Amino acid sequence: MSMEAAERYYESLGRTWERAAYIKARPAAGDMAAGEAFLKTLRPFVWRKHLDFAAIQDAHDMRLRIRAHKGLGGPVELPEHNMKLGRGGIREIEFFTQTRQIIAGGRDHDLRVRGTVEGLSVLAQKDWIPQDVAQKLTSHYRAHREVEHRLQMINDAQTHSLPRSAEGFARLAAFMGVEQAALEQDLKARLTEVHELTEGFFAGSGISAVCDLPAEVAESFDTEITSRWRSYPALRSDRAVEIFERLRPEILSRLARTANPAEALLAFDGFLSGLPAGVQLFSLFDVNPQLIDLLVDIVGSSPALAHHLSRNSGVFDAVIGGGFFAPWPGMAALCDELAALLETEADYERKLDAARRWAKEWHFRIGVHHLRGLIDADKAGPQYADLAEAALRALWPVVVAQFAAKHGPPPGRGAMVLGMGSLGAGRLNATSDLDLIVIYDADGVEMSEGRRPLAARPYYARLTQAMVTAVTAPMSQGKLYEVDMRLRPSGTQGPVATSLTSFSDYQMNEAWVWEHLALTRARPVAGEAAVAADVEAVRAAVLARGHPRAKIIDDVAAMRERIAAAKPAEGPWDAKLGAGRLQDVELVAQAGSLMAASLERGARDGLEAGMDCGWLDHATGSALTEAYLLFWRLQLVAKLLSERPLDPARIGEGGCRMLLRETGQDTIAALEAALVEVAARADAAITALLQSEDGENT
After folding, report:
1. Is residue 525 within a helix (H) or strand (E), and if so which, with residue range?
2. % the chain with pLDDT above 90
3. Cys-Cys crosslink for 180: which of 161, 173, 207, 321, Cβ 3.0 to 4.6 Å?
4. Which residues 6+ apart lie within 8 Å of 540 measured at CB?
């Protein structure tokens, strides 16, 4: 048949057994290049991008149909037993291996091997199956194949059935060089163990069969909510309904054990209503019931995370994929992992989508670790920043290569990306955008060399726009980050990319004090290392040059007044805005860094620098540090739990418990009182600092 017709068939009608068959497929004759191209087009059909636990039921159903069709059901009896299709036979091992490959091979290219023995080995290496199971099945597979070969040699025919008579078994045993009794005993043991090792995977389920809920559990839930579930998109197929009905008692039982079952039910209802489809996710829960606990924990504590999950349920793949609860790998390891992932994608848009999918999984991981108390806000903030920087580092060369294909390589020494604000300080929250500046050095080269050459300035301006688009464009996996470039020289009226010479001249001769305050947190995050080193040298020179202390204090006081007038606090639970709160303290910290010409970027570093240079006394520094830590932790929790301004009444009992755990308070009322008291002390300290006529402590 034509390749086009075959592609249409597999795209619309292809079944799981056909996907399994294509694991082994390879061009064997004819136009080999055309054969390879055809198999390449089928990769999305064979290897799904998410963990595909729904394939287990498909494979199990197929096994049952084969048994029924061939009359191979029932217990293992050696006479005329089919070594290939019968219970405990070759096909069971192949199905077991291929189904496991199908489940995870879309995410892990190492699993895409043709051989059964090779497949078992890789699955064990990747911790998808225990090592001893892989070894046993490998031994049985080879033994089964040897018996199959001897049978075919004896019969001079393609047969898979054991002899029907004792004489036949005696002949087979003699041909294999063993005693008949030993052969029969070995065959029975191997077939039985293969069946036991594989049957639980296919027919077993982490969730028990459908059962009735205990009356007290059923009565504790609002039937008006549960009755509408069948109308949701996730339950529009019979297959999804079948799996969900098997899960439903377990889900409701676990919801009933939460601190506030009615609240948890509403949160779960919101999650379920947002799912565009259900078969894959429900199959995942069916085989991995521990994920239900994680889901209940999330929907009972973090509506924002639950909402994200309903739109991106594929992030559960990361939990099953291994290493989800391992220690944080660090930014360098993240860069290497994403770069390797992007290399496997040939198409530019697929690279961008892959980066989004990867980042969402790691972002989800940080949120879950924070939610469950495995890390606190002081660790979550740097992890969010590591993730953002790794994404920018890995994407920058991809964007440059794509742009250079049309316009030629970057003229001169290339460009770098400067992280500003919270990214530069290395502490982000769950919803942070990225403050960026792109700085280039054309090094006297006027034009690029490519099919459509550009002058250096428009080249880097358009390259910057391409990078921003690569990060912010909504794709099938959503956006990577929002980007803010208003901190570049000359603000929104200036060019989107700045030359190194212009950046240096502007910062040394024209920049306002507030721009130097912002520079205290600037940090290279991507691009050419040599250009980044020069930018850092400019930063060091600018900060060393300094400003009169009185000038800094006057400008900071004026900025504080403008911010207070333009962005008033939204109540006592606003961590960022308001007198004595996060933005207020960070402004003082940046002033301390500028006065001390400190190259450190963190807010606590800036407060220490302010004390070192004599601007802040110990009491003031301690009050501001206390405020910064309290409001930073409040901010991290608020951004994780809610997309709206924080309101303890809306984040549920689980969210409140997390809030108290992070801030070290016993009750919400005590926390609210502490926020008011700590902010008042910090406000008084800042006001006294900025009212000092000569900038010294009063």
Report:
1. strand 523-527
2. 57
3. 173
4. 599
Matching residue, tokens 């208003």:
486
Give 354's strand partners. Answer: none
Helical segments of 30-165, H only: 32-41, 43-46, 54-70, 90-104, 116-125, 131-155
DSSP codes of every residue in 152-169: HHHHTS---BPPSSHHHH
Yes or no: say if 384 and 429 are a contact pair by the CB < 8 Å rule.
yes
Tokens in use for 538?
């400019």
E strand spans, 337-433: 414-420
Rg of the chain over all Cα atoms, to the nearest angstrom = 32
What is the spatial distance between Cα 341 and Cα 326, in angstroms, rounded to a whole number? 20
Q: How confident is the model at residue 54 (pLDDT cuts 50, 70, 90)?
A: low
Yes or no: say if 324 and 376 are a contact pair by the CB < 8 Å rule.
Answer: no
**Rounded Cα gap, residues 295 and 254, in angstroms:** 10
Residue type (1 letter), 22: Y
CA distance 302 to 325: 19
Spatial separation of the C-alpha atoms in residues 436 and 317, rounded to whole Å: 31
Provide the token pair at 643.
């997309």
| Residue-level pLDDT at 44 | 84
Q: Name the strand (E) or helix (H) holding 299.
A: helix 290-301
The per-residue pLDDT for range 465-515, each reduced to its tens digit, is 999 999 999 998 889 999 999 887 766 666 789 999 999 999 999 889 999
Which of 371, 247, 240 minimizes the C-alpha distance to 306? Answer: 371
Q: What percent of the chain has pLDDT over 70?
A: 88
Q: For residue 689, how many other CB atoms are within 10 A of its CB?
A: 24
Q: How far is CA 254 from CA 258, 265, 298, in A?
A: 7, 10, 12
Q: What is the pLDDT of residue 55?
A: 62
For the segment 53-73, the average pLDDT, to the nearest whole number, is: 63
Angle at CA of residue 265, ends 259 and 270, nearest 5°: 130
Token output for 58 = 């498909």
The partner residues of 417 in beta bridges, in order of sequence, read 438, 526
606-630 burial, b at 16+ Cβ within 10 Å, e below that, comes to bbbbbbebebbeeebbebbbebbbb
Return left, alpha or beta for 145; rule: phi > 0 is left, psi -120 to 50 is alpha, else beta.
alpha
User: Residue 33 is encoded by which pair of tokens?
Assistant: 């290049």
Closest to 101 (Cα-Cα) out of 205, 13, 11, 19? 19
Residue 265 CB neighbours (<10 A)? 22
The pairing of beta strand 434-441 with beta strand 414-420: antiparallel
Beta bridge partners of 434: 483
For residue 434, the SS3 value is strand
Tokens 């403050």 belong to residue: 435
pTM score of the predicted model: 0.76
Torsion of CA 218, 220, 221, 227, to 10 degrees: 30
How far lies 451's CA from each of 176, 339, 404, 463, in Å? Answer: 69, 27, 9, 16
Helix axes 500-509, 529-545, angle to 10 degrees: 10
Closest among 315, 110, 108, 67 to 202, alpha carbons compared:
67
652-665 in b/e form (b: 16+ CB < 10 A) is bebbbebbbebbeb
Give whole-number Cα distances, 354 to 107, 280, 476, in Å. 10, 19, 10
Quote the pLDDT of residue 693.
Answer: 46
> Judging by beta carbons within 10 Å of its beta carbon (0-12, 13-18, 19+), is residue 329 exposed, middle or buried?
middle
Q: Give the residue-averaged pLDDT of 219-223.
A: 67
* Cα dist from 109 to 47, 101, 113, 298, 348, whole Å: 9, 10, 9, 30, 19
